[in-house]
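re: ur question from earlier - yeah i can do the single chain one, its not a big deal. heres the input i used so u can compare w yours
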Amino acid sequence: QVQVVESGGGLVQAGGSLRLSCAASGSIFSIYTMGWYRQAPGKQRDIVARVTSGGSTYYADSVKGRFTISRDNAKNTVFLQMNSLKPEDTAVYYCSVNLGAREYWGQGTQVTVSS
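and the output i got, formated as tokens:
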């Protein structure tokens, strides 16, 4: 079994910053891709950013230049530094851990940005 736990969400004013963390534990041999997705009320879950085991990154256009994803392979953790937050960033943020044969998800952490 693999457990994925996110932390770091909260309420912040527009223009502020938050740092999300995600730790994977359990029966893990190697992790290919770790990523962050978000889902706003009434909308589908969309990718925010992801990082491969080799450090290659991808960002959604809406967060480029504001968010930074990073990863600690030794600790099976991934981080999302979110700066210059906007009200439209408000959503539940989910961590994804891809082990190749299967993808695991965390329970989600709420991020609310007030205007």
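The longest strand covers residues 18-26. not sure if urs matches, ping me
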